[in-house]
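Input.
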Amino acid sequence: RRRPARPWTVERLLAWYEGPSKELAPEDRAWPNSPRAAAITLLLASRDVRGLRAAGAAIDAGDDEVRIAAGMGIDTYWSDDLSAKMNLEMIMSSAMAWWDANRDRYTSR
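Output.
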């Protein structure tokens, strides 16, 4: 039996997430933010550094829905801080602190 084709790769998902132009503001892109939030979650779950970089950019300057998805994904898939799983404010605080502490490690490559 042939294995089914993978529905996405990190490269395809990043291209879809970033849209036709990185220059476009999120509100000017042709899709609503909810699918972008789902895409950032999938990118983070892939444990690929490129997804983490996209999530870091979203935490730094993304719209609220994508920023929350990025923070929750960083907390779930990258951070070792299990104590912050109490509420959204604590999760976001933990994720943002983790990103600030690890930003140079993952963006200098």
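The helical segments are 10-18, 33-45, 49-61, 64-77, 88-107.
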